Description:
The chain has one domain (16-101). It has a two-stranded antiparallel ribbon. Helix 2 runs antiparallel to helix 3. The radius of gyration is 23 Å and the shape is flat. The chain is built from five helices and two strands, in the order αββαααα. With 103 residues, the protein is mostly helical.
Amino acid sequence: MALRTIPIRQAANRPNLFMGGDREMVMFSGLLAFTLIFSAFEFKAFVFGVILWTFALYVLRLMAKNDPQLRQVYLRHRKYREYYASRSTPFYNNSAAQEKQYR
């Protein structure tokens, strides 16, 4: 008797992208460019805001092409501590001298 296979549809596993980049970062960069343009209300600010947003969109698309989950990976990386002291149990406290020895 053969095992039954269930196909995993691509739509359920697709990353959450907007305009080719990470959704939140693209929208936030657009918001920054929009506020720059309308707070200064000058032609120079308009040009700079459009250039800023197109450059940010280009970089975010490159990031998403490399790894669509890059922002989530980076945020998880930032949560990790620099040093985890080795312990035999979770209730053991290393002294400051012991921790300094391994840094």
